[in-house]
Amino acid sequence: MTAKRPNFRRTTATALLLLSSCLAGPAMAETLQGALAKAYASNPTLTGARAGQRATDENVPLQKANGRPAADVSGSYSESILKPTISFTAPQRTVNAQAQLNVPIYSGGTVRNGVKAAKTRVAAGQANLRGTEASVFSQTVAAYMDVIRDSAIVALNQANVKVLDVNLQATNDRFEVGDLTRTDVAQSESRLALARSDLQIAQANLITSRENYIALVGEAPDNLEPPPQLPGLPANPETAVQVALRDNADILAAQKQREARHYDAKAAKGGVLPRVSAFTQAGYTNYLHSLDSTALDANGNAVEGPQINKQAVAGVQLTIPLYQGGRPAAQVRQTQALESQAIEQEIEIERGVIAQTRAAYASWQASLQTIDSNQKAVEAASLSLEGVRAENSVGSRTILDILNAEQEALNARVQLVSARRNAYVAGFSLLAAMGHAEADDLGLASGTLYDPMVNYDRVKGKWFDWDYGAAPMPVATRTVDTLPQNANVSPETAQQP
């Protein structure tokens, strides 16, 4: 139902798979690919969207049912409580059965165009499902990188608290011997208190990030590995826009919705055209020997009349609409207006995708430049801190100078960690806007990928009235049993930036 995309997307998937495999750490460590695979399998937003797509698939057999034969049987039993006073032949009791079969032959194109509209909406739904995949993956990548960033920030703040605690002890010792003043001690105490406050905020942010990760992935983050490099990123925004216009799922869904509205308008026009159907009816009535009627035989003797009545008829019915109060024209105008709306919405979505793609590219490029700048800032701040400490040892720098240098070094490292997170998220968002951040792009090692065509092929030709299918069962995993997250970080995290 959906158009196939170029084969180079499979190359993208292979590259990401190889990179992720090369960067995989210990067996207990979690990789980005593993987190995406868990989200793909159990995220309720995604599993719910798949269920919604299965509901959309059923519109095709629903529309086909309008053009299929319809048969029904009815029966009744009646008992006369009070006979009419002027009727001498009314039966006391009656058993009646009727059967009817109607076969539509021509319906003005409403069925044919209704089926085409339903099929087109299935294709639109599949494109929307792709878009949901990309959205969930983008959120998961952001949550994954948030945990890595906030873990590193907590580790940096913990290290800063330890350094400031040592500085305060050293300042007190020097104050005791008269080498420093009470002001120096107060400055050290103030910076330590602020550092502890920053640490508490960083720890709260880390807990929030870990809980958000659980909400998306379904499991707690465990020793997250650095993410692999993102393959397939464009060289310029023009290339990114061209790819997005071709592969973005939202644009493809809008195009299909517009096509479906066009078929709706054609189906509505069938409301003024003739309809032809074949029919057959059969009836059976049994008066159960309660019909008070007599007849004479050949010898002139009175005998009981017939107690059973049977009938059958078959024919063709032609219906030519002459006037329906203006309803068909109103329906056509309505569907044409909705088609016009779909055309404008397609342009609106295209505009949004173009803006999103260009903005994501600019954000990605800016983040890369920010990484370079922050890396230089970290190196310069580290060198400055060493120099200030050395100069303080000979008396040319104050304790406040050391505290300021330490704060600048911390800020530079925190900004570097944030810049790395922002660059990766922006790069993945760019891939998502281009339509290249879906399950088949990422080479997820989670077994067979979900194929919406499987369900569509299964139900599109069904005709049996009692083929209900299996009862719904939850697919997504619950997180109520997961433990509340804490702000503990591993020793390896403390070694980062």
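(ticket continues) Second input and output from the same batch:
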Amino acid sequence: MGIKRYFLVSLIYMLAIGLYVYSFNGEGYTLEFFGLSLSFPVAFWMVLPVFILVIASIGHLVFYNFKDFLYKRAWKKDSEVFHEAAKNRILGEEVNASYKTDGFKFAGKMLQAMKFDPSLPSSFIEEDIANASAIAVSVANGNYEDLKKYKLSKENPLVLQNTLNRLKVEPKYALEILKNCKELEGELCKKAYDALLDFASFNEIKRYNFPIDKQTFRRMMERYLNSDDSFDMDVKSIEEMLEQLNAERTDYLELARKIKGKLSPDSLIALFEKMYNAKGIVAADAYLYVLYDLQMIDKIREILLNSDPEEFVKFRTLLFLRDNGKSINIDTFLNV
């Protein structure tokens, strides 16, 4: 029963009591109270306790109705907060929302510990939750989605995965990513640099000044040696990169085998002779390989003659077999 209806019924009840009492006793009654004299009909004094009880009960109803109002308002607010938190959790955000009602406090703590699994089937009635779920699934499946409207944090795993997805379909987006990469740390920066190696010019790659490892050097050499690729770099830069990555004998030998078709014989000899003079034994196999490939046998004999008999055993064997009429494939023999 509503307060208004309760008050109206109580008023009718009090009026009925008053009229009933007044109908058989219309006399007055004087009440002495701390020196005060109050004179009212007997019917009034009979109705007064009921009136006081009605006022007290109305106060009780108002208090608990107000308390219920506050709870419902808090529950509605918590419901909205939880709804938003659930959407953010689906999108990979960390949620730390505060709640006022006990039920949502527990649900909120459970939500923090949960993680949305896009590989499992899900069905949501709320449109925005369903849309968030569909986007999370799409990103997990390798698609690029526009996430700007959700205002997700940069560290969000879904944002990182979405950026990687964009990088796959739009390799030049690597230029935007690398603007924020001071070093090659983190998967995103590494992937962006990896994509950069596939399309950028040597000068663009060099501009980032990231450390060169053997894998990066091989990638650039593949492009440099590919006649269909416009990628170009000077010989001096090749030398500098070999120095930077602390190239070993096998690295110089592999370079000699691959680059021999790119450079002219004179340029090839000049390059590896310079490396041999600078690096000594480390670049010696590569230099001897180039000389043998160009059939500069006398030069090879000169180098072998002035070296330790225990050095360059394979090349000594190669010359011995050649001198005895054996045709040997140098690449197979040296395993390069």
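Agent notes: The longest strand covers residues 28-33. Residues 42-90 form the longest helix (49 residues). Closing as not reproducible unless the customer responds.
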